[in-house]
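At your convenience, could you comment on the folded chain following this short note?
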Amino acid sequence: MPELKRALEIDPTVTLPRIGFFFYFARQYDEAIRRDLKLLEATPNFSLAHLTLGLAYEQKKDFSRAIPELKRAIELSGDRIFPAYLAHAYAVSGKTREARRILEELKQPSGKSYVYAWAIALVYAGLGEKDRAMEWLEKAYRNHDHDLAFLQVWPHFAPLLSDPRFPHLLRHINLPPQASSASSLCRISADPHGFYPDWG
């Protein structure tokens, strides 16, 4: 985080590939949107920028902008997890039929593709089905899903914070009950492939 702060002090217009995630995980959604829009001016087909832009719009409950951005991210990336974010946006915006359709697709492995329990849990969290969300998070733990490294920073899982099973799961994977600061969120999001849970 100090390097990012220094870069922004030198040049407030600096654009980094994952900059939207820095501000998204810090809950600075307006800044995440501003940075992603700037990034997309230079690289309009960058799927990750469309993803984080859609995620930030969703947190602001601007679903008319969030859903198209998430769809565009899916079109550009082909990533099998990305539809889970769209399903979550559908769920929290009241379009539960669309959310459940995607949910069923996520449960079906395609060819050699892996069924991502973490992604399924995320959709159930959006649908308000806490027991099913926890069930699939526990499956993700057993499967060693690397996305659990971000479990305590995703706003999608905030509804589970009051469930005693959630902090218990965090302890199992050696994560603090809550992220301690915006800087720790940014450190994690800066290099998602270099930060993994301690599976014990």
